[in-house]
Amino acid sequence: MNVLITGAGIAGPAAALALSKAGITCEVAEARPGDDGDDDGTGAFLTLTANGQDALHAIDADQPVLDASFPARRLRIFSPDGRQLADAPLGHDHPCPRTITRAALSRALRRQAADHGIPVRHGKRLVTAGTGPGGTVTATFADGTQASADLLIGADGIHSPVRTLIDPGAPAPRYTGLLIACGYASHPAAQASADGYDMYYGNKAFFGCTTGPDQRTWWFARIPQPEPAATGTGDPDQIARAYDDDATPAAAIIRHTRGPVTTTSARDIACLPRWSNGAMIVIGDAAHAASPSTTQGASLAIEDAVILAQCLRDIPAIPGALTAFEQLRRDRVERVARSGASGENPVPSMGRPRKADAGESVFAHHIDWSATRRP
Ligand SMILES: Cc1cc2nc3c(=O)[nH]c(=O)nc-3n(C[C@H](O)[C@H](O)[C@H](O)COP(=O)(O)OP(=O)(O)OC[C@H]3O[C@@H](n4cnc5c(N)ncnc54)[C@H](O)[C@@H]3O)c2cc1C
Q1: With left for phi above 0 and alpha for psi between -120 and 50, is residue 324 left, alpha or beta?
Q2: 142: three-class secondary structure by DSSP
Q3: For ligand 1, what atom is nearest to the CA of residue 8?
Q4: Which residue puts its alpha carbon closest to atom 53 of ligand 1?
Q5: What pTM was computed for the model?
């Protein structure tokens, strides 16, 4: 079997590593031109929770990610008037969440793929794909080149072209009503908790921060906003105004930001009716984007990658493997997406068991690589 993966964000290189471990030949085609400077600001930094770390461990890909990230060992929660409401240790039942820039996570996975000899081709923007009589998929890229494979995995993110190739009527991503901003503040007055996250419920908006190994305060803001804005960079002073009525350090931290403030309008795809068509399948955000407020998008994308590779390893015919994958995944990922769908700021869940599957917390999800996946 020969697999073509489009997208070298998180799900793509994780799928390549998992397929390689399963003995399946694959290559990755990424739209962006190069390996460097490829942080488009999407999810400027994120937390990788225990389930994401577990999925990486299943394919022996966790150590470089652990090395490029840092742990959050406690979670403090504050009210708009600055009162501390909670101080909870993290990592009791599961490993601590890890903070990492999205770019560093992607890079750590891509480098491992390259180390395994898996081709990761940049500047390959998929524009269309079709299935030939023998079931072979041929993908056409914007540069006019083509590539053929037995299976096309669309790991091409929330605006996935593969999703619409599978189903032209697929729902478009939905704006959840939150503007997410991320930045890095370097003034000592803006120092956040060094060993965990400080989360502030403001009168108008939610704010969270931690201190990175670079001694800067890594912060994010979630601001309710009726209309989506273009993804890009924001003005710190304008973002800080959402916190000016609060007796918390949020506004000061934002105003002490050096460098760009990344802004994204949070979108989700709560339920995609068709994930596959027998020769193409979508995984990660392309299939089931969850609002960043769930802190689960990257972890679920990695889980997808590993479980799809197991299905392709264990179930002889590709269509059967794709069906089995969907049966294993749909309920869990849709529950997580629903938990962040309200557009409100949910109580931070990084350290608490939030029920996503009956009887199992989101974080406790464990993948046993040696377990056989059956139709
Ligand atoms: C502000 C913000 C904060 C977040 N915080 C968290 C968090 O704390 N925890 C968490 O787990 N998740 C978080 N997320 C979500 C997380 O970033 C995503 O869920 C994750 O990146 C999904 O991975 P993916 O590989 O499916 O898609 P992506 O990471 O988006 O990767 C898709 C790749 O496909 C490529 N591509 C697109 N079109 C094509 C094409 N036509 N041809 C070839 N390649 C193509 C893109 O260039 C990209 O490299 C956050 C997201 C945002 C926006």
Answers
A1: alpha
A2: coil
A3: 49
A4: 43
A5: 0.94
Q: How far is the CA of 317 from the centre of ligand 1 (A)?
A: 29
Mutation test of ligand 1: which of 38, 42, 75, 223 has the most ligand atoms closer than 8 Å to its C-beta?
A: 42
Residues 326, 329, 331, 335: what is their CA dihedral angle, to the nearest 10 degrees? -130
- Full pLDDT tens readout for the chain, 375 residues: 999 999 999 999 999 999 999 999 999 999 999 865 545 444 489 999 999 999 999 999 999 999 999 999 999 999 999 999 999 999 888 899 999 999 999 999 999 999 999 999 999 999 999 999 888 999 999 999 999 999 999 999 999 999 999 999 999 999 999 999 999 998 766 667 788 999 999 999 999 999 999 889 999 999 999 999 887 888 999 999 999 999 999 999 999 998 889 999 999 999 999 999 999 999 999 999 998 889 999 999 999 999 999 999 999 999 999 999 999 999 999 999 988 776 555 444 444 434 333 335 789 999 999 999 987
The C-alpha atoms of residue 215 and residue 212 are separated, in whole angstroms, by: 5
Domains, the chain, ordered by start: 2-69+100-173+269-361 (3.50.50.60), 176-267 (3.30.9.30)
Burial class (CB in 10 A: 0-12, 13-18, 19+), 255: middle
- Does 31 sit in the ligand 1 pocket, CB within 6 Å? yes
Q: Which atom of ligand 1 is nearest to the CA of 12?
A: 25
